[in-house]
Amino acid sequence: MNIFSLAAKNLMRRHVRTGLTVAGVAIAIAVLFSLLSFNAGYERQLGGELNSLGIHMLAVPKGCPYEAASLIIHGGVIPKYLSYSDLEQVRKIDGIEIASPMLLHQFFKDDKPHIVYGINIEEQKALKPWWKVEGRYFRDDETGAMVVGRSLAEKENLKVGQVLDFGPGKVPTTIVGILERTGNQDDEFHFLPLAAAQHIFGKEGQLTTIAIKVDDISKISAISKKLEQIPDIQVVTMTQVMGTIMNLVGSAQALLFSVIIIALFISAVGIINTLIMSVNERTREFGMMKAVGASGWDVSRLIVIETLIITLAGCAVGLTVALGGSKLVEGFVRGVIPYSPGGELISIDPFLILVCIGFALAIGLLCSIYPAIRCARLTPMEAMRSDLE
Amino acid sequence: MRDTIIAARGLSKSYRRGSENVHALRATDLSVGKGEFVSIVGPSGSGKSTLLHLLGLLETPSSGRISLQGRETSWLKERDLVKVRRGSIGFVFQQFLLLPTLTVEENIELPLLFSRKSVNKDRIAGIMEMLELTHRARHLPHQLSGGEMQRVSIGRALVNEPGIIMADEPTGNLDTATADKIYSLFKRLNEGGLSLIVVTHNMELAGRADRVIRLRDGQIISD
């Protein structure tokens, strides 16, 4: 027998209460881990998603705020346009490998927004070498042809060869290809040749943005400065876009975190209450231990060890539940915040696991320190006479 | 003349209960010799348990001094008192106060955990054999009779090899026959050279000790 086995046996005495306290800690830890993990995963996946766009920066019309730039990434439409002369000036700048003009347009069908990208297909294929298509791509000079994203095709039950009356003029347009799943926003879009898209939506000669890939990423800053010298153009780098999206979701996250912090606080107070009550009930027993030779330190140690066993067991259960139920939590949080990237947001991060273990230890120590000190100070008879408090 | 194992001078204890000041023990002098078997008797509220708790260093007196095996204890702090208690005194309580999740053997070993002594299994087996508990070694307290539980409590008091055993109403929760057996056990331990101070309200059992101290209203009325 040692102090640890004594502590463990004491805990088993009131197994229902111990179980409930462990469950309380487990819930707090599971919520904490899920949220921290989600937050870290969110930034990581968002960064990954932006990288998967294959571009380093976007040239957008001056006055176009960063929020609008981030909308462009996800198919939003802004009311200002660039011209082909802007595109020519961009292409003259040294160090730019690809400058691909795009027109974005949004229309509603059955109250759901649909996003149309007018693109130069060869340039887009160079920017996104992972694109694969069922059927074929359109040619840049083709009219009445389009490619759609995989998720869109599934949702709308679209097939290669199907003809849709497209745009305000109901232009018959054939789906010549369906993109294989990319795992990003491209799965949701309609892609048309740029000239055809401009024609259908009455935006001849107008561009929403120019997607730019540089030949050397160390030159991004210098090229960005040169681009900004073009009067109509403002440059948004992908890092800035990421910051903008993080700002957009920041308020939702702040709300979520506030709720979580309050929940954790309530849970911590509940745990402290249970543990203090359990120690108080046994004060008499601690008095007996002191009478048979336990020092104040021995009793304190026993109380702290018992509490740490509870909180660490709760931590282990909480982490297991959080990792096991990560999909559920992910689904819930995705529904709450305005935008979330694809891919797995919750993953096993050793640092976050350490943070949770640290949190459990902190709760354990916080809960045990007061009853431990109190019991340590009592004389054996004071403890044995002690009434419940 | 026996050597003195414990001596108290001018021992008193008072405490407040609401607005009332209760004098549980008044200026009491007492000494117990080595190997002596002393019974303390008296009606409820006479201060007999208070006297035992003070002598056992379980609580601090309001005034007076106690020396244990020649060592003055009045100035000692709780952390030093623990060491004195651990090495010199074994306690037996009326309610047994066994840990319900520990077996008989583990309950007896418990004080060794606190005194950081290694467990000598032969010695534990010897104690259990003497207390006729060997067949109960792996049982939990709730599986025992009252007499057996009190014998476990006596085993726990003996395990640190103290010079004196102090028992507070050890037969208070036991029937007459079992109480008689416990006193026979005390007598045997005393014959082995152990000092005993036993608080009881049972005059018949008290009479089996070498010496009977009577208390009333916090004072010794006969010795």
Write the layout of secondary structure elements.
The complex is a heterodimer of chains A (389) and B (223).
Chain A lengths: L2 H11 L1 H37 L5 E5 L4 H8 L10 H9 L3 E14 L2 E8 L1 H7 L5 E3 L9 E4 L1 H7 L6 E4 L4 E9 L10 E4 H7 L8 E6 L5 H9 L4 E5 H44 L1 H9 L4 H29 L1 H11 L13 H28 L2 H6 L4
Parallel strand pairs in A: 3-8, 5-7
Antiparallel strand pairs in A: 1-9, 1-10, 2-3, 2-9, 4-7, 5-8, 6-7
Chain B lengths: L3 E14 L2 E14 L3 E5 L6 H8 L7 E6 L2 E2 L5 H11 E5 L10 H11 L6 H10 L15 H13 L5 E5 L7 H16 L3 E6 L2 H4 L4 E6 L2 E4 L1
Parallel strand pairs in B: 3-8, 3-9, 6-7, 7-8
Antiparallel strand pairs in B: 1-2, 1-4, 4-5, 9-10
Q: What would a concise description of this structure say?
A:
With 389 residues, chain A is an alpha+beta fold.
| Helix percent band of chain B | 25-40%
Helix-strand category of chain A: alpha+beta
Major sheet size, sense and barrel closure of chain B: 6 strands, mixed
Could you tell me how far the N terminus lies from the C terminus of chain B, measured between alpha carbons in angstroms? 17 Å
Name the largest protein-protein interface in this structure. A-B, 27 and 29 residues
Largest sheet of chain A: 10 strands, mixed
Question: How would you characterize this protein structure?
Answer:
The complex is a heterodimer of chains A (about 400) and B (about 220). With about 400 residues, chain A is an alpha+beta fold. Chain A has helices at about 5-15, 15-50, 65-75, 85-90, 120-125, 150-155, 195-200, 220-230, 240-280, 285-290, 295-325, 325-335, 350-375, 380-385; strands at about 55-60, 95-110, 110-120, 135, 145-150, 165, 170-180, 190-195, 210-215, 235. In chain A, helix 2 packs across helix 11 (about 295-325) and helix 11 packs antiparallel against helix 13 (about 350-375). The longest helix of chain A has about 45 residues, at about 240-280. Chain B is α/β, with parallel strands linked by helices and about 220 residues long. Chain B has one domain: P-loop containing nucleotide triphosphate hydrolases (Rossmann fold), CATH 3.40.50.300. Helices cover about 35% and strands about 30% of the residues of chain B. Chain B has a six-stranded mixed sheet, sandwiched between helices. Chain B has a four-stranded antiparallel sheet with strand order 2-1-4-5, covered by helices on one side. The mean pLDDT of chain B is about 90.
